[in-house]
Amino acid sequence: MSESIQINTEDMPSLLYNTLPKHIYKELKQTSKTKKYNTELAGCLEHEYLLDLSDAPLFTKHALELAKYFFAEARNSAVIQEIYKSFAKQPILNLQELWLNEQQPGEYNPLHNHGGLFSFVVYLDIPYYMSEQIKIDKQINQVLNGSTEFYDPYNHFSRILTVEKDKHEGLMVMFPAWVLHTVYPFKGDYKDLRTTVSGNINLYT
What we know:
An eight-stranded antiparallel β-sheet has the order 1-2-10-7-12-5-4-3. Strands 6-11-8-9 form a four-stranded antiparallel β-sheet, with no helix packed on it. The radius of gyration is 17 Å and the shape is globular. The protein starts with a strand and ends with a strand. The chain is built from four helices and twelve strands. 20% of the residues lie in helices and 35% in strands. A hairpin with a 6-residue loop joins strand 8 (148-151) and strand 9 (158-161).
């Protein structure tokens, strides 16, 4: 699996990138919604849903394997070291829930963080090309429409991930749960939604 994983540890915040195998991506897209989940999430989005985790056994196994790999590779992090030392025995990684974000033009996710050890986002569908967004906001020097920005509160470094149609569908990004992140709104008359799936990886003994 390591051949398909990219981790940036030299620059902060540390992020893990993995393009999902096609069959896992397909399974995730077919996972059922169970209920609206807006009241539990930070997003300024109309459509956010809790997903049926039992519909995604392959993704769950894949996500936990990635988290185990990330945990081992990030052991040089001072925060990870302290977390690891706090457990008397080898901790167990667990994925408890998944949720779906269906983002319309103009909607956004404000700066926030998550609980647990790691969090992740999977880009399922992206309706726009960045060239279209730049054309809409051509008077702006740096167009961040639809981008995700990650901000590490401990060292104050940030990283911007720009995603677009036909390039990033199926990409999974995993990051330490304490890393702050925000999703900028995209603009334009799009009927299709920008859909992502997110979740948290927790530690237990």
